[in-house]
Amino acid sequence: MRLILIGCAALALASCNKASQPRANESSAAAPESGIKGIDRTHKGTPAPKVGFNDPAGKQTSLAAFTGKPTLVNLWASWCAPCVKELPTLDKLARAEDGKLNVVAISQDDGPHPSVVAFLKTHNIATLDSYQDPKMGLSGALGAEVLPTSVLFDANGKEVWRYVGDQDWTTPEAAKLLAEGGVGRPG
Questions:
Q1: Which residues contact 149 (CB under 8 A, 6 or more apart)?
Q2: Alpha carbon distance 182, 127 (integer Å)
Q3: Residue 185 to residues 24, 154, 172: CA-CA distances in angstroms?
Q4: Which of 43, 85, 86, 108 has the fewest C-beta atoms under 10 angstroms from its C-beta?
Q5: Digit-coded pLDDT (tens) for 49-99
């Protein structure tokens, strides 16, 4: 398992470039420090894409299934060290905001679905479900080229902002960002 994670740098500004993702069980190259980490509000008001991805049962779903509550979509992969670092904080956020916020972490891994389930279990991710987009249709529709990328949609399915790179979703700064989409109160 360690060999899978070695490729992506665990530096604070490092992210994994989706375009150069490795095949299963192959490490990826470290993404350059491009300075693109952080908040992006240039897509504010854009409707959520209608592209489908797989739900935990392997059936097609889309972001429309989450309309009615603010939804934080996180695009991640098992081979991306910053993604793996971020997952436990997303899991805590999902637990803390249950009923108020949908936290939808969507694996971009192209391997079989049971490998995503096993990965989450191995990393003690208990609250997040095993959504998967093995053909990366949603990330393509969103124009997300770096993993992890998180996109907050309001209760009406309109984009509020996107965050490129890893984030600790348990911090007061994250709470302030989430408040922009009607989640809780700023820290």
A1: 74, 75, 139, 142, 162, 163, 164, 165
A2: 21
A3: 40, 15, 10
A4: 43
A5: 999 999 999 999 999 999 999 999 999 999 999 999 999 999 999 999 999
